[in-house]
Amino acid sequence: MLAEKHRCAWGQTNNDLMREYHDEEWGRPSHDSRHLFELLSLEIMQAGLSWQTVLNKRAAFKQAFANFDYRQVQQMAPKIPVLLENTQIIRNRLKVMAIINNARVIAQLAAKGEDFDHYVWAFVNNQPIRHHITSHDQVPNTTDLAKHMSKQMKADGFAFTGPVVIYSFMQAAGLVNDHEADCFVNQTLDE
C-alpha cells in the first residue's frame, strides 16, 4: 500500500475538489491571462464565504461567465439581471458587477498592449515569492505587497480587489508560494 501524500493542512480533506485544487492548482505559477482572470474572479466570489462553496460552484461560474473569457465577460452588463437569478452561482450584485468591470479593465490593458499575465507578475518581478511555512497558522491573510498591489489595481480601475482578496489571488496564482514546507506540492515546486 502506498503512503498517502503529505499535504498542507487545508488540503488534507475528503472533498475531492478541494484536494485536487490543492494538489494541481493552488500555488502553482499561472501565466495564462484567462486562468488568472478566473482565479481573481473566484477569489472575489469567495470573499466572506468558504473556498469549498466556491469550488463546488466553479463549473457553474465557468458556464455563467463564458469560461472567464474577459473579451466576452466585459460585454455582460446587460445580463446582470439573468446572472442574479442563476441559483447555481453566488448571486451577489457587487461581486457580479466587479467581475464584469474587471474584464473591461483587462480588455483595456490588452488594447494598450499589456497582457494581464504581465500586469500581475510585474508586482513580484516575475518571480514567485516563497514563504517558508511550516504550519498553516503561519499563513498571513494579507501582506504589505498585497496591500500595494490592491491599491494599484484599484487605481487602475479594478473592483472588489481589497488586500485580502488580492493576497488570496496571489496564493492561488502562484505569485506567492504558501504551501507548507513538508507538503508534496511544495517539494515539486522546487524541481
Provide a compact summary of the structure.
The chain contains eleven helices and two strands, in the order ααααααααβααβα. It is globular. It has one domain (29-189): Hypothetical protein, domain 2 (Endonuclease III, domain 1).
Q: Gap between N and C termini, in Å?
A: 26 Å
Give the C-level CATH assignment: Mainly Alpha
Going by CATH, the architecture would be: Orthogonal Bundle
Strand order of the largest sheet: 1-2
Q: What do we call the CATH topology?
A: Endonuclease III, domain 1
Q: Considering DSSP H and I runs of 4 or more, what fraction of the residues is helical?
A: 40-55%
Q: What is the number of independent domains?
A: 1
Give the rounded overall mean pLDDT. Answer: 95
Binding site for Zn(2+): 8, 22, 179, 183
EC number: 3.2.2.20
GO molecular function: DNA-3-methyladenine glycosylase activity; metal ion binding
GO biological process, one term: base-excision repair
